[in-house]
C-alpha cells in the first residue's frame, strides 16, 4: 500500500535550494520511492534528538529527513537540505 507524503513547511525553502543545486530530481525520486517503501535499504534510523525519524542521502552533503506514521500510512518529510538540520 502506498504512503501519503506530507511536507513540513520548512521543505518549501529546501526545495528552492535543491532546484538551485540541481538536486531536485534526485530528491523527488527519493520521495516517490519512500511513498512505496519507507524503509529503503539505504535509509538510516536516527537517534538522540531525532529518535523515531529516518534519513536517506540525497548526496554526500544533504539528507532527506522524514518520519513514518505507520498506522495512518503517512510519511512526513521534515527536511531536504543539510545534514540533520
From TrEMBL:
SUPFAM superfamilies documented for this protein: RelE-like
Listed Gene3D superfamilies: RelE-like
Pfam families attached to this UniProt entry: ParE_toxin (PF05016)
Keywords linked to the UniProt accession: Toxin-antitoxin system
Highest taxon above the source species: Bacteria
Protein's name in the database: Toxin of toxin-antitoxin system
Native source species: Rickettsia asembonensis
UniProt cross-references to InterPro entries, sorted A to Z: RelE/ParE_toxin (IPR007712), RelE/ParE_toxin_dom_sf (IPR035093)
